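User: Hi! Is it possible to get a structure for several chains at once, not just one? Here's what I have:
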Amino acid sequence: MRPLNCCEIAHTEAVEDYLRVIFKLAGRGLPVTTSAVAEQVSVAPPTVSAMLKRLEASNLVARSAAHEISLTTHGERHAMGVTRRHRLVETFLVQVLGLTWDEVHTEADKLEHAISDRLEDRIDSVLGHPTHDPHGDPIPPRSGRHVEAWSVPLGGVAAGNRFRVQRVADDDSDALRYLGERGIRPGAVLEVVSREPFGGPVWVKVGARRHALGPILADVVHGEIA
Amino acid sequence: MRPLNCCEIAHTEAVEDYLRVIFKLAGRGLPVTTSAVAEQVSVAPPTVSAMLKRLEASNLVARSAAHEISLTTHGERHAMGVTRRHRLVETFLVQVLGLTWDEVHTEADKLEHAISDRLEDRIDSVLGHPTHDPHGDPIPPRSGRHVEAWSVPLGGVAAGNRFRVQRVADDDSDALRYLGERGIRPGAVLEVVSREPFGGPVWVKVGARRHALGPILADVVHGEIA
DNA sequence: TCCGAACATTAGCCTCATCTAACCCCATCT
DNA sequence: AGATGGGGTTAGATGAGGCTAATGTTCGGA
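Assistant: Yes, the chains can be modeled jointly so their relative placement is included. Here is the combined structure:
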């Protein structure tokens, strides 16, 4: 094996997928483990082991003694590039092609690998250089600082508070559709009416309507106390 | 080997590329040979041999005794689908994202594999169901009849004729840029002033300007005598 | 009639990305 | 202490898609 050099690995779609997923897990403060990555990429754990070995050899990820996975500077730069394309595409699909916010994640998963730099710039410019995608996720700039900033989950807010939605996890398209139909999207302000104990729902008021959101839903909605 | 069934092959990007190239060569009336396909797909001839074997086994292409390659009904349907996405994307990139007609072929080569049916329909609808792409190539309908209709090349038109440009081959982006800068694009009407012999240029008049087009250029421009 | 060029195919090898089955390490519970 | 189980990894296989080098095959020209 020769000296570590990030350019020795092909920028295949698989590599981009793994990098984006690692970036996503890390950004949410979740443990970045072999099995977590396997689940997100939808492959078996040994497949991840093999890929991580290659990513490590190409200096894109680093691993501590305790199996801890993190992106190197190089790795993070690439991951942010893929994430930027992903989120720009999502925004584009909603704003220009009229798709709904629950449809775009799957589409963007494929398109993010097919967008050239030139195209990325055109899309960015047609959209007026957006800072956030339809789920409220911040779009990393082409170069420069970027923070993922996952704020408080709705599930952790006490009753009686007003809560401004900032981000909604884009993973679960059924959840997105459900929430969207009830007006729960970035920018919306909810009133947290009450919280049932023992994994029960959170009652929220959106405008005049009340909704009971189960723990799964309450966890995908993030924001701040307004 | 089991009975031939078109669905036994994965619809990978490579398969789509080969099908589209075979469709393109056949549509232009060019010989569809192993080496012609190899050149168009940018791979070595043995790679094409191997792929053709698979395509034949999946009933997507048929081959005569004399090595003649043709698409089956199934193969043609798939090829037309890929071609439709390719040309819709090209049109979209020009009309919505403001790319130039010499840039879009390369981009579409990647994007054509990443467009879902849903997305294809949205693009089609946003563009108002276009019938031709920016190079004048007809966009195959989602289903139904389609003809490729490569009419007369400019190189075969006698001096003294007026010539209406219908299609310009999208392969060579340098040629496209050169022609575009001189106003030679689908819809333009040229006057064929004179033809130099021995592979010399064709002199054409576009509006008030004259241009000498070498045999390569004169061959990529197709149309009809006006 | 024979020879060489052009073209297709076979043979043999490689990488990427995936799988299942088996194994190992370590923490925990009995 | 020993059994149990969860995660990670190794081993070994597979299929897609690509390569080069060698081997037909066929056809036109000398």
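The CA atoms of residues 169 and 220 of chain B lie 5 Å apart. Residues 1-7 of chain B have pLDDT under 50 and may be disordered.

User: Great, thank you!
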